[in-house]
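Below is a typical protein record.
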Amino acid sequence: MVQNPPDLRPDLASARVRESRRKGQPTIGMVSLGCPKALVDSERILTRLRAEGYGISPDYGGADAVIVNTCGFLDSAKAESLGAIGEALAENGRVIVTGCLGAEPEYITGAHPKVLAVTGPHQYEQVLDAVHAAVPPAPDPFVDLLPKAEVSLTPRHYSYLKISEGCNHKCKFCIIPDMRGKLVSRPQKAVLREAERLVEAGVKELLVISQDTSAYGTDWAERDSKFPITQLARDLGQLGAWVRMHYVYPYPHVRDMIPLMAEGLVLPYLDIPFQHAHPDVLKRMARPAAGSRTLDEIAAWREICPDITLRSTFIVGYPGETEAEFQTLLDWLDEAQLDRVGCFQYEDVAGARSNALPDHVPDELKQERWDRFMEKAQAISEAKLAKKVGQVIQVLVDDVDDEGIATCRTKADAPEIDGNLFIDEDAGHLEPGAFVTVEVDEAGEYDLWGRLV
C-alpha cells in the first residue's frame, strides 16, 4: 500500500480546493487517506457535493461537517484512520466516515461513537445521503444551476484515472476483495470520456489505476477482445497526454502492451506488484506468479522496449520466510535490476488468512531483512541513475519554489512515489505542467539534477 503523502491530504493542503463561499452556502471538509484509488473516490464525492451547491472547506473550522475517507488495508493504516477521525471530531465535531475501514462500522463506532454515519468503500450515494441528513443542501438556483468542473485533489497537470474497482485475486495477506468486492470494470467509453475531459482541462499526465489493471474488462461477458486493457491503453495514448500504468499484474498478455510503449503511445513504465521471488513464499501468499517466469517476462519486455522503467513493491518477513528464501529474493533482485523498488515489512491484518500461517518472523528479523533489501535496491537505483548523466531528456515540471528551483519528473518517475529531477539554475520562469528538455548533469541514489537545453 502507498499512502497519500501529507501534501495530498485535503485537510493539510487547502490550496488544492480553495474557493470562495457564497452567503448561506453549506460547506463540507474532506480528509482523504490511503491509496490513489481512495483519492479518486474523494474527488468524486466532492464533485457530486459541489454540483448540489455545497462549498468545499479547506479547514475544519469552516466546514459544517467533515467526511473522513479511511484506509483499512493494514493495522497501521487503521490506526491512522482512527486518529484522523478523532482529530476531525475534536476540531469540528460533525464527522461522516467512509472508505475501506467503513466496511467495519462497529470497529469505528467502538472507538468513536459520536460519528454521524459510517459507509463502506465507493458507496457514493450513501455518503451523499449522510451529508444531506447532517447538512441539508441549500443550492442557489442562479449560482448552482450548472455544476462546476470536477474537483481535483491533485495538481492540475496530472490526474488519477480509475478504470475498475475490486479484485478477483485471493492473496492471503490482503483483504481488499473483502472490502471492495470482485472486479468490476468501468465501461471503456466512460473511461475515455473522463480521460478526454481531463486532457481538455489541461491534464498532462493520466495515471491509470485500479486493483488489477491488467485484468481490466475480463469481467465482461461480452467483449471485443480477450484482454481489453491493451485497446484501452492504445486509445488513451491517442489523447496527447502521458499515460502511466499502475498496479499491473505480470500476466502473459501484458507483453502486448509493451509495443505501445516502444511506439511512444504509453509511457515506458510498468508498476507491477511482484511481492516476492521465491516460489514457496509466493505459494504461501497465494500469488499467481513465480520468480523465474517473471524474469523471462522482464527480459522479453526489455527486448521490445529497452528503455522501459519497472517499479515494484515487495514484502519481507512474510510468515515462514526462511533466510534461504529471503536470499533468493535478493539474488532475484540482482538479476531483475528493477528501476524503482519499494518494500514493506509484513504485518498482520484483521481478517487476512496469512494471520493463521505458522512461523511468523520476529520483528527484529523483519527490520534486518528490510535494511538489507533496501541497501541492495538503493545500490541498483544509484547505478542506473548514474548512467543517465549526459542524456538529454524530456521532463514534466511539478513545482517551482520561491528560490526558483524546479521539481520535475522524467517518464520514469510517478508522482509522490518515485524520484525527481531538479533544475536549480534559470528555472524561475517555468510553470507547473510544462514539458521542458534538460540535460542530466548529476545523479544521486533516487534523484537527478539537470539544466535546461
